[in-house]
Amino acid sequence: MNSLAKHNIRKPRMFRWGSLGVVMGLLLMMAPHPGQGENFVIYFPKTHSIIPVKTYGSVQYLPVIQLLNLFGNVGSMKSRKKSLEVWFNSTQIRLRQDDRTIRLNNAKLKLDEPVRTIEGEWMVPAGFLTSVLPTLINQVVQYQRGEDRILVGNVRPNSFVLHLSHVQHGVELSVQFTEQINLRTAAQNGKWVLYLGNHPVQPVESIFEFNNPYVSQVRFDDHDGQPKLIISPSAPGLDFYPKLGEGGKSITAQIIKPEVAQAATAPQQAAPAAPVPAPSQPAPEQATAAPAPAPVPLLPAVVLDAGHGGSDLGAQGRNGLLEKNLTLQIVAQVQRALQATGKYRVVLTRTSDVNVNFDQRAVVANVARPIAFFSFHAGDLGQTTPRVMVYSYRPSSPLSMASGPDPKPLFVNWDKVQLRYIDQSHRLAESLQQDLEERTRVAPTPPMELPVRVLQSIAAPAVAVEVGSLTPSIDAGPLTNSNFQQEIATAVVQAVASLQGGQP
Amino acid sequence: MPRRTLVLAIAVAVTLVAGIIYLMTLRRHMAPSDANSRSEQTARTKLNEAALQPSGGQEQTITLYFPSYGDGKLLTEARLMKLSSDNIKAIRQILLALIEGSHQGHGNALSPSTTIRAVFLTPDGTAIVDLSQEALTDFQPGIESESLAIYSIVDSICANIPQVKEVRFLVQGQEVQTLDGHIDLTGSFAPEPSLIAQTH
């Protein structure tokens, strides 16, 4: 009885302490606190660096002094309790804690989130990379929220096309890159790793899942500053025979069952002399290790393709306007409009005056797994200007349609992938044309379905938008009018929103 | 001068004069054929013109389709022609009529300087049309103009020669990805009647 009585007295006290603990815990969880460390990789034309990132609330922050050190000379610093003054090259930068304004000499620049000091370190939100850094270093900085890579200056990221095909007793994985790579292979934690040198590979979210007994996943990763492909075998004990192709722009790797590998490699002179060792199973402690912090979720991607570029000038206008430059202008407007919604991540197939072939455009688009793809062009659309025509894809022959994509392919035929999206693409084209016509009366003609080459290899709802007329006989002025371009941008935002069944 | 030397000198002189006269005659004979072969294009044009000559058949109404830039349509133009009973010659006649251009002021699918290098017809009804480089260089730029030019050819051939089901294009004997960066030219093209403007 006594012991029972004791328990009866103690229990409520324990409950009170427990409740207090739970409440304190909840309060701590609700308060913004610095998250686990992550890295951003900063790519320059010939090198790259890593910078640590801390997450405060849902915002990613970078250490400002460490960041500036990567780009120039950080001179004298005055750090007070609530403010920081730094001389960077010949610019005085002034920051205040919890303030969204940054002063560069006498100019004020706005940030999307306030400056913080986290664990005694002055930190700026990731938005600093696009709103302040380009002014400070006078270079182009490409960064999009949700991504963990920053491209500074004239960096042309490598892209790749990946194919998987059956070979005897296994599969052959072939990866074709747009730029030369320096390949190094390793086996780590039950996976094969192909290190791809220092050059950035775009974009980051390249995960390919397979359903076969040999390879289950191929994933691109550069979180540690080392671009690499991580290949996960479907079962332990398989043999892996990687080989760098001619010109250093391709890799072929055979993944073969070991009991037949000997026989299989004998006639295959192309295979390397020795396979990369079969990856060992992951160490047991990895299975019980604490999970990594959840990454900031990527926003849905919209790919914008500026037609032509480099030596491919496209159409030419009377006043010297070139299609390749006009399409870049329009893409920039559409990019701003999409990013202003805060709902989409924009991926561009080109950002400068460079030659990009159809496959490279498709690679950039497809690895981003976009919700929509828009290709912009200009051409002869008759005497009335400005005009807009919208196109979706249809093969040139019904036979191509009949022999469409295999419903259960190991890998979809690159040239037929748009066949899967024909209906969605047509609806997207209709939505865009109708919206433009209702608001501006510049797109009276219903969308046309044509075998447009750039749309053919896109694995997403895809349309081509042509503005006109851009010909030597007609004044191209109306096409460069910012109101006209803004109308196109608004219509694209509306069309993407319609595709998702919502408002922009 | 010994008599023997004199005879030899006269013989050499006569041979020399005869040789010069022969060479001059040869030059006169060669000049016209040299002028004829001055340009490959002239020769091809002559060949094309020969193909357009009526081949003894009856005149019939053929339908040609020309692009109408700005509204994405093909405009119909009827013509009286003696279309050859040989399908390959007939395809060539249609192409030459398109190169010649519209009599009603419609847009042109092909530049007037385009020549037809070759035409083939496979047993399954695919016409293979090999055009000269001018089809690429003298081209109206744009998705609409490129597609209308292609379907102007495809629809015109298929409408007048029922044996032709599809048309495939080569430029200078080679397969090309596109004419001017827009429409995929690597496959065969079936006719697209929906592009033809309805006449009222």
Key structural traits:
heterodimer, A: alpha+beta, Copper Amine Oxidase, Chain A, domain 1, Immunoglobulin-like, Aminopeptidase, six-stranded mixed β-sheet, globular, B: 200 residues, three-stranded mixed β-sheet, two-stranded antiparallel ribbon, 5 strands, 18% strand
CATH superfamily of the largest domain in chain A: Zn-dependent exopeptidases
Largest sheet of chain B: 3 strands, mixed
State the low-pLDDT regions of chain B, or none: 32-38
Q: What is the number of helices of chain B?
A: 5
CATH architecture of the largest domain in chain A: 3-Layer(aba) Sandwich
Termini separation of chain A comes to 70 Å
Q: In what range is the share of β-strand residues of chain A? A: 25-35%
Estimated radius of gyration of chain B: 26 Å
In the CATH scheme, the class of the largest domain in chain A would be Alpha Beta
Query: Total domains of chain B, how many?
Result: 2
Average the pLDDT over all residues of chain B and give the rounded result: 84
Rg over alpha carbons of chain A: 27 Å
Number of strands of chain A: 27
Strand content of chain B: 15-25%
